[in-house]
Amino acid sequence: MPAAQTLAGKGSLADGEIGGGSKPRLHVMISARGSGTSTWCADHADVLGEVLSVDAACATIGAGDHDSGVADDVLDLVERSAAVLLAAGRDVTIDATGCRAEDRARWLALADAHDVVPVAILLRCELTTGLWRNRRRQRRARVAAVVRTWWAVRTLTPQRLEGEGFAEVWDCYTDWRMSPAASWATRVLVAVLLAATAFDACRPAAPAMREPVPAQPVAPAPPVQEVAESPRPAIAGPWVVADVVALPCCDTAGRPLDPQPRALRCLPEADYRTRPARPRYWTVPLKGSAPIIAEDRAAYPPGTPCPYDR
User: Fold this and answer.
1) Which pTM value belongs to this model?
2) What are 169's strand-pairing partners?
3) Same domain (yes/no): 197, 251
């Protein structure tokens, strides 16, 4: 029996094509995502021996059959189970993708440790078939992962697997071979998907979202300053307007005023005429906000009766 066997069609294995020999066999599945590996193993369980599924072990000890966070523990569990079965003289099949050489090296070391025959089962399918199967799954893999693993299997040859240390290589197909025209269409699709994957990998990452800045508390509005009005001096009038000024001081609490309101300064008519050295002003705040002294001076010209003299 030749080392590399090509098994086409629907992946069927005729009686007597595989198996036989005195030593137990360790079958290592090598397939892309969506190749139908688990279904193929179930259809050929009579010649594959005990099938150990990595996805089933992942579902047992992880959150599901795609829980990548327990990948190392899953492989350790499958390896220990396979070691027990091989030591008992049973044939074992590792149901995993096996697309990476470092993953295959782990199973080759296990076969060497138990002196069993390592067999590589290269399970192929067309890319369109793998994508269609992946789309029908409840938990789909990323299209880029399907294309990447499909290309790894597509470029893998039986001679390379024999060079890694496998005693036998079974080259199987899980679908009918396509026509040359369909094969070219698949190659074009692969090129487009690989280009899209490369573009996505080279695209700069989106800027990290900044943490929202907490809103600063709004300072309470300053209390309204009420201007302290001076009482009218006990001097006989009449009182007349002397000037309009900005009043710097003070509110009813004795604090400086800001803004400074306008104020009307009145004098007794006698003081306004004689202009004593120490005039006795009666300062009356005007209503309003910022001082507009020019307008107020026009409204209250000096010498006119004080409007607040009643």
Assistant:
1) 0.51
2) 4, 120
3) no
